[in-house]
C-alpha cells in the first residue's frame, strides 16, 4: 500500500503569522487560542491568506460484526437507514452542514444491508460489514489496506472538486466498540477507562461491552502494524486514509468524536506527521475520546457533551477556524489604525 508523503509544516509562514498577531490592535494574547490556531493553520497551508471556503464533511459508513454481541442499543439495520437519511438531508450532520456551508459526502465502505444507488452516494463496499473481532480478526490485511486506499481515493476526488477544509465523520452500529478497542490498544489504557455507553446502553450492557473488548485484546494482541485489521472497521480505515490524504495536500482536518479520534490514531500509526494537520473539533461525552485526543496532542475547540458522531462536532467548529483566520487577516495593526501600542 502506498502512503503519500506528508510535507512538514511551513514554520517560516507560521512565524510570520505570530509576528502579525503581535502587531494587531489588541493586548498580546487577548484572543487566546484563536491566535495560536491561526498560526497553526498558516503552518499547515503555507498561506497567510488562506480561508476555509470550500468545506467538506465526509461521512463514512460501515457495519461491524461485533454488533451481533449486543453492544448497541440499536439494531444493525439502522446503519443503512441512517445512510439514506444522510442522502435525503434529514440527519443532524445535514442540518449543521447547511448552516456552516459545507457539502456532505457519504461513503459506503461496508454497510451490511444492500443500498439503492444514489447520485450522492459513493458506493465502495469492501464487504458487508467486518467479522466479529471478539472471535477472530475484524478483517483481512488486504481489506484493511483497501479501506485506507478508499479514504485516499475519496480525498483525491474531493480535492479535484475543490477542498479547503475537511471534516471526517462516520456511521456504523457497533463502531464505538471497535473505536474503544483501538484506543485501548494504542494508548495502552484499560478498556474500562476508554469505553462508554455509545448509543445509550445500560450498565449491564456497558459491562459486557468492556468484557468483550478485554477478551479481544487478550486474543489478538494488536500491534502497531495490524491494529486496524484485527479490531477496526472499514469506515475507520477509510477515515484514516482521508486524513492522510488531506495532510499530504496541506489541507487541515477537523477530527470529530470517538470514532474519528480512533481513526486519527490509526492514521498516525501509518504516517506520524498527519497529526500536524489535525484539529480536534470538540471533546465528546465518551471517555475514550479525550484519552485519544491527549495521545494525539490535540486540544479540542468545543466541549458540548456531544456523542452523536456523523461529523457533527467537527462541523460545529468550522466557524472557529474561519474566525481565527479572519482576525489574523482583517484586523488593523496599531500602525494602520493610529492606535498607541503597549508601553
Tell me what the structure shows.
With 343 residues, this protein is α/β, with parallel strands linked by helices. The termini are far apart. A six-stranded parallel sheet has the order 3-2-1-4-5-6, sandwiched between helices. The protein has one domain (55-320): Rossmann fold, CATH 3.40.50.10210. It has helices spanning 11-21, 33-45, 78-88, 92-100, 141-161, 175-187, 191-194, 203-220, 227-231, 234-248, 258-270, 287-296, 312-316, 318-330, 334-337, and strands at residues 55-62, 102-110, 121-123, 165-171, 253-255, 278-280.
Keywords, separated by commas or semicolons:
six-stranded parallel beta sheet; single chain; Rossmann fold; 343 residues; 48% helix; 6 strands; alpha/beta; 15 helices
Q: Any idea what the CATH superfamily is called?
A: Nicotinate-nucleotide-dimethylbenzimidazole phosphoribosyltransferase (CobT), large domain
State the distance separating the first and last CA atoms. Answer: 58 Å
Which architecture name does CATH use?
Answer: 3-Layer(aba) Sandwich
Number of strands: 6
Q: What gross morphology would you assign? A: globular
Mean pLDDT: 96
Low-confidence stretches: none
How helical, in percent, are the residues? 40-55%
Query: Whole-number radius of gyration?
Result: 20 Å
Amino acid at each position: 500500500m502506498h502512503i503519500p508523503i506528508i510535507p512538514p509544516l511551513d514554520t517560516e509562514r507560521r512565524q510570520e503569522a505570530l509576528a502579525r498577531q503581535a502587531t494587531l490592535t489588541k493586548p498580546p494574547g487577548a484572543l487566546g487560542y484563536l491566535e495560536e490556531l491561526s498560526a497553526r493553520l498558516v503552518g499547515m497551508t503555507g498561506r497567510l491568506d488562506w480561508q476555509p471556503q470550500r468545506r467538506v464533511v465526509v461521512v463514512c459508513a460501515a457495519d461491524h460484526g461485533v454488533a451481533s454481541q449486543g453492544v448497541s442499543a440499536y439494531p444493525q439495520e439502522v446503519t443503512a437507514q441512517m445512510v439514506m437519511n444522510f442522502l435525503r438531508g434529514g440527519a443532524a450532520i445535514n442540518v449543521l452542514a447547511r448552516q456552516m456551508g459545507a457539502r456532505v459526502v457519504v461513503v459506503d465502505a461496508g454497510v451490511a444491508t444492500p443500498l439503492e444507488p444514489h447520485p450522492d452516494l459513493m458506493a465502495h463496499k469492501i464487504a458487508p460489514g467486518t467479522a466479529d473481532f471478539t472471535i477472530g480478526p475484524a478483517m483481512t490485511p488486504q481489506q484493511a489496506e483497501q479501506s485506507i486506499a478508499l479514504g485516499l481515493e475519496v480525498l483525491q476526488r474531493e480535492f479535484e472538486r475543490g477542498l479547503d477544509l475537511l471534516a471526517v465523520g462516520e456511521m456504523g452500529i457497533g463502531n464505538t466498540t471497535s473505536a474503544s478497542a483501538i484506543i485501548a490498544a494504542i494508548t495502552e489504557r484499560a478498556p474500562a477507562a476508554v469505553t462508554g455507553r455509545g448509543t445509550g446502553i445500560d450498565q449491564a450492557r456497558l459491562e459486557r461491552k468492556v468484557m468483550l473488548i478485554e477478551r479481544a485484546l487478550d486474543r489478538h494482541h494488536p500491534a502497531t502494524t495490524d491494529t486496524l485489521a484485527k479490531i477496526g472497521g472499514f469506515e475507520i480505515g477509510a477515515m484514516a486514509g482521508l486524513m492522510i490524504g488531506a495532510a499530504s495536500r496541506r489541507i487541515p482536518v477537523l477530527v470529530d468524536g470517538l470514532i474519528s479520534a480512533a481513526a486519527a490514531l490509526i492514521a498516525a500509526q501509518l504516517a506520524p506527521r498527519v497529526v500536524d494537520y489535525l484539529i480536534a473539533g470538540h471533546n465528546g461525552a465518551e471517555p475514550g475520546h479525550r484519552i485519544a485526543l491527549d495521545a494525539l496532542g490535540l486540544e479540542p475547540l468545543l466541549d458540548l457533551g456531544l456523542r452523536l458522531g456523523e461529523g457533527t462536532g467537527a462541523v460545529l467548529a468550522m466557524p472557529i477556524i474561519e474566525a481565527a483566520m479572519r482576525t489574523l487577516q482583517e484586523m488593523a495593526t496599531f500602525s494602520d489604525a493610529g492606535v498607541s501600542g503597549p508601553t
